[in-house]
Amino acid sequence: MPEPRPGSVLVRIEASTLMSYLKDYVEGKLPMYNPPKGTFTPGGNGVGVVHAIGRDVWHVKPGQRVVLSSHFTAAENVEDSAEILIGVTAFGPVAEEVQADWRDGTLAEYALMPATAVTPAEGLSHIDSAQLGVLMRYIVPFGGLLRGRLAAGETLVVTGATGAYGSAAVLLAIAMGAGRVVAAGRNAVALEAVARAGGPRVVPVALTGDSQADANALRRAANGGAQMAFDMVGGARDPNATLAALRSLRRGGRLVLMGSMSAPLPLSYTELMANNWEIIGQFMYPVDAYRRLLDLVRAGLLDISSIRPRVFPLTALPEAMEAAATAGSLECVVVQP
């Protein structure tokens, strides 16, 4: 049982959401990740009940239901604060020091978390913990949609729309008031399922791999061009879909990059300048994002039941990791102690 310390919250875990790549991660097949040194408890985002609090925690109280974020930014008043994913990875020497203090994630009966990574979830007692854990699928693209300044009534193109986070991005953009969402990907059947879940403002476009042809198709679906494009393609080995998304933009449009492409992205200086395009990279989400996302759920604007949880006991973690690696775009694997 972890002991609470200053600035910490001890949470009894009710649900922990699995990343689709957790199996590859624990097998050491993702060299770009930098896990904690030595033994540690992995995990991602989760849901639980506060068991105890440490000193210097004033608002969160024992007995409160909370959602947990693995994304943690050092809470110091400096220009470039270190960021980590608790129980997953750290980037840079200062972040590794932070990681040494917060090494254990949510795949346990109890988790000790920094207070700033804990968000109260009042007013949602009608949603069970497994379904509430599905919020992890929405919170990541929420960071990109916020950073891209998606406004009500705008047209958004989402590439990678059938992936774990791309499908959630489509549904979330509708909840945030997008006038039209063009859902783009290679799997036409999966795109149709996402479009049905999102409703009549979602227009599916099956990509061919021909960047210019795909850009033309996206522009047609966007009624002449989108104000914003959101690239969520995971593990892409060529830039064709990303370039198609960029070229689907109207003059002055924004492209947000949150995918995991391993190939270089060739850009035309003149094309960017002449079209006044803006390209934005975004890692994860701001510290207040979970609170704002929960507000969308409370207001009835975001129905998180469109993505279904597949629940496994913690004792079946190996089977759960296998299931997470092959889960469909509208299902999410959740582990419960």
Overall spatial form: globular
Helical/strand content category: alpha/beta
Radius of gyration: 20 Å
- Biggest beta sheet attributes: 7 strands, mixed
Tally the beta strands.
16
What's the helical proportion of residues? 25-40%
Average pLDDT over all residues: 97
Number of H- or I-type helical stretches: 11
User: Which CATH class of the largest domain is shown?
Assistant: Alpha Beta
Q: CATH homologous superfamily of the largest domain?
A: Medium-chain alcohol dehydrogenases, catalytic domain
Distance between the termini: 14 Å
Strand content: 25-35%
User: Uncertain runs with pLDDT below 50, 5 residues or more?
Assistant: none
What's the CATH architecture name of the largest domain?
Alpha-Beta Complex
Topology pattern, helix = H, strand = E? EHEEEEEHEEHHEHEHEHEHEHEHEHE
Short description:
The chain is an alpha/beta fold and 337 residues long. It is built from eleven helices and 16 strands. The strands form three sheets. Strands 1, 2, 3, 7, 8, 15 and 16 form a seven-stranded mixed β-sheet that branches. The protein has a six-stranded parallel β-sheet with strand order 11-10-9-12-13-14, with helices on both faces. A three-stranded antiparallel β-sheet has the order 4-5-6.
